[in-house]
Amino acid sequence: MRDLPVGNGRLLINFDDKYQIRDVYFPHVGQENHSEGFPFRFGVWVDGEFSWVHEDGWNRDLRYLPNSLITDVTLRNDILGVEVGCNDLVAGRENVYLRHVKVRDLTNSKRDIRVFLHHDFRIYENKIGDTAFYDPDTLSLIHYKKHRYFLINTLPHFDQFATGRKAFRNMEGTWRDAEDGELHGGAITEGSVDSTIAVHGSGEFEFYYWIGTGTSHKEVAELNGSVLGNTPQTYFSESSKQQFEDINLSGVSEGVATLFSRSLLIVESQIDHGGAIIAANDHDVTERATDHYSYLWPRDGAFVANALDRVGRNDITRKFYELCGRIIHERGYFLQKYNADGTVGSGWHAYWDKYRSVEMLPIQEDETALVLWALWEHYEKFSDHEFIESHYKFLIVKAADFLAGYRDEATGLPKPSWNIWEDRRGAHTFTCSTVVAGLRAAANFADVFEDAERASNYRTAADEIVAGMQKHLFSEQLGRFLRSLQSNGDESLTPDQTVDASMFAVFYFGCFAVDDPMVVGTMNAIEQKLTNADGGVARFENDGYMLESDGIVGNSWIICTLWLAEYKIAIGDLDAAEKLIEWVVDQALPSGVLPEQVDPVTVKHLSVSPLTWSHSTFVATVLSYVNKQRTQKE
How many Cα atoms within 13 Å fall on the side-chain side of residue 36? Predict the structure, then answer.
């Protein structure tokens, strides 16, 4: 789990709950983690006593300064009698991470205090062939391999340094060398290497520390010169300001308003400069999955982009839509997920059915549909005709033609694909709802460009899916929608009666009116079957993913809880919606970070954090709430 991310779209630094740097992503958000999740240690030595800040004995308060991505961290150790205050940021225009460190001796004496900063780079995500050395040209430490350079410096200049071997035979690293208060390592080491620096002081003192990141020695040397020339404090005085539209949140609590603003900043930190909206950048997940969440899922991306569009950040979302135009498959769909640079990510959806010896499309069709839906919402707000025109033929038409054609002739429903949760194939209620929204969006675009035949075809296809949903996915007996018609490994489909929170889509995407008895029955089932004792909402019945506690339907998910809140807002029950929104506020860390899911018994954060989708859904739901509140008053 990651408590504090700081980044600028090219360089992302993540801290864990012990205030250790755990992830160093460059040159893309989510792509190339040059620490592989291993900790960069931070320690203090006082008159012969030493402690790393991740150890017992430290009280840690990890937050951000208001309205910025500058951290506000307090570390206190009463046994050592010392308090350390830290502010961290990544510069907006330069790929440099900076920390301002303020040390205070709580004994009011002039004891000798030494602060140690350790670096465990694993450049290009492996520990082979790295070099760490003291560079006399810049008077700094530099780690490098091939086209990746990391320069480490402080002001005032650090008093000691060491480079050495780590994770090799019995060598643990230079961090062990630091624990006696003295560094004895070499001036250069190659192979599996780390480094540590020390800054000495007494009483109350402060210093600045930075890591410049680039692709050559020349580049990081220039960054170092820029920090020294501009002075480090200048970067902190130029605190990042929110660039979002002025949203009137007078009708919500202070906690909701604070998390709303924080969520926007956290979301922006998880987006690559090339447009990829990354799901989560928490490397800990690799320990259980041998993979991670540092990918663009077009579905997540579309939801996030929609929330950002609603607060006026079309400068970000246009890059996302442009990337979608570049990566869409020639056959008109998006694959499961993509790396930050737009290359295809890892996946587990098969292309080939080895039992029937036929092709299978390795897709979640909702991902394709949602991009069209979000793009139309974008156009309605910004009316950027020229931008949309450039994407009409090769993104909108290509995707809509696929959605309209990839359907079962007998039912009118989309052919089987993978569901939103990526764990089963079939014709899913959520998928059908998003395809309707995507096709109607495409029809609207066709109207804009006076393409009458396509507009008619897309609307007809959407209407046929709605009719098919009512006929084949609604259960008269249950009085609600089914989760899906689930694939059986052959041509047959079996009704899946599982209650699933994603079925909120039937009203959210306009397939059926919110007061339609079919919708009411479905949403009542979601609320009754999936609400945990803590007030959060599970994904679906008997959800075993990341389950740790017994006797619950499944862990509480941030997005699923907010989907129920969207329903309460839509029907005008703002008191119930407010309760669900406040539940989300209660799950946030002091820093404002939200996870993917929460154990409803222990309140433990599970899976990854921050989850970009959790934060964007909070933003979108709060906007829905304040808009409904305003219309009710009118």
Answer: 11
Backbone torsions φ then ψ of 579, nearest 5 degrees:
-60, -40
Q: How many CB atoms lie within 10 A of CB 500?
A: 30
Rounded Cα–Cα distance for residues 255 and 56 (Å): 30
Q: 3-class DSSP state for residue 288?
A: helix
Cβ atoms of 605 and 547 closer than 8 Å = no
Ramachandran category for residue 457: left, alpha or beta (phi over 0 → left; psi -120 to 50 → alpha): alpha
**Rounded distance between C-alpha atoms, residue 212 and residue 50, angstroms:** 28
Per-residue pLDDT of 330-360, as tens digits, reads 999 999 999 999 999 999 999 999 989 999 9
Residue indicated by tokens 């150790």: 77
Say if CB 347 and CB 337 are below 8 A apart. Answer: yes
d(CA 266, CA 275): 16
Tens digits of residue pLDDT in 193-251: 999 999 999 999 999 999 999 999 999 999 999 999 999 999 998 865 556 677 899 89
DSSP per-residue codes, 403-456: HHHSB-TTT-SBPPEE-TTSS-EEEEHHHHHHHHHHHHHHHHHHHHTT-HHHHH
Q: How many CA atoms lie within 13 A of 432 on its CB side?
A: 36
Give the residues across from 277 on adjacent strands: 271
Residue 332 carries which DSSP code? S
Query: Contact at 8 Å (CB) between 105 and 204?
Result: yes
Query: 509 phi and psi, to 5 degrees?
Result: -100, 15
The pairing of strands 49-52 and 474-475 is unpaired
pTM above 0.90, yes or no: yes
Q: Are 77 and 49 in contact (CB under 8 A)?
A: no
Q: Which of 455, 469, 284, 306 is nearest to 380 (CA)?
A: 306
How many CB atoms are located within 10 Å of the residue 286 CB?
15
